[in-house]
Amino acid sequence: MLYEHDVVAAVRRVELRELRLWVEMGWVKPAGSDHGPVFDDLDVARIRLVCDLRKDMARRSCGAVTVGSDPRAAPRIARIGRGCGHAAGRDPSSDCRRL
User: Fold this and answer.
1) Which is more confident, 50 or 94?
2) What is the rounded distance in angstroms from the CA atom of residue 30 to the CA atom of residue 45?
3) CATH of domain 2-98
4) How far apart, in whole angstroms, are the C-alpha atoms of residue 64 and residue 56?
């Protein structure tokens, strides 16, 4: 479990102000504690994915982005998906069948 400043230090591609905005917008939903929001591994994976998508959007002049537009990113996205399934205590193969 990580606090806001720990997440910013670990991810390095997100600023505290951005992280708080993403929480406010509901893109990331950390647990609450007496000392503020607490982020788990699934939250950190989601933050990294948002950072990757934002970087991908910045590279495109028109702003149109498709998830997985870079073929080299497909294995990484699959790993994130499997990791999210395991972190949530679910069988990731059942998630893939639903997609």
Assistant:
1) 50
2) 12
3) 1.10.1660
4) 9
